[in-house]
Amino acid sequence: MKLHADRFDVQTISGYGPGWIAIDKEEFTHSLIVGSRGERIEWNCASFEDLTAAHFAQLANLDAEVVIFGSGKKNRFPPAAWLAPLMEKRIGLESMSTQAACRTYNILAGEGRNVVAALLLEKDE
Questions:
Q1: Spatial distance between the Cα atoms of 118 and 113, rounded to a whole number of angstroms
Q2: Residue 13 to residue 48: CA distance in whole angstroms
């Protein structure tokens, strides 16, 4: 019995490794935002320490159902105050390593969910 489609109708993360992510086989070496509605936005941060409240306000403007935050090589959490714009719009945020975020994004996007993944690619990964 098949439980999933052979091909997704949304963009998917087709691979990842230290310092890179491939979306539909196109390779990226910088932090980015990818969404199930076709978003591919460069996310201007090279490390977790570069993040600010403005980075999370940018995510709130995408009006997703849920945001998957890939926090780099290990799971880290942004300060709660930075999440206020997301909470005001009732957008959930899940934090996990970037590799786990890639896998989770594909599952949710494949289910037809309006999901955005904010993927931090640290240069030392």
A1: 15
A2: 21
| Residue 115 dihedral angles phi and psi, to the nearest 5° | -120, 145
**What CA–CA distance (Å, rounded) separates 56 from 60?**
6
Q: Does domain 13-119 have CATH number 2.60.40.720?
A: no
- State the CB neighbour count (10 A cutoff) for residue 8: 15
pLDDT tens per residue across span 30-66? 999 999 999 999 999 999 999 999 999 999 999 999 9
Please state the pTM of the whole predicted model.
0.90
Sheet with 26-28, edge to edge strand ranges = 13-17, 20-23, 26-28
d(Cα 114, Cα 108) in Å, to the nearest integer? Answer: 8
Q: Are 24 and 13 in contact (CB under 8 A)?
A: no
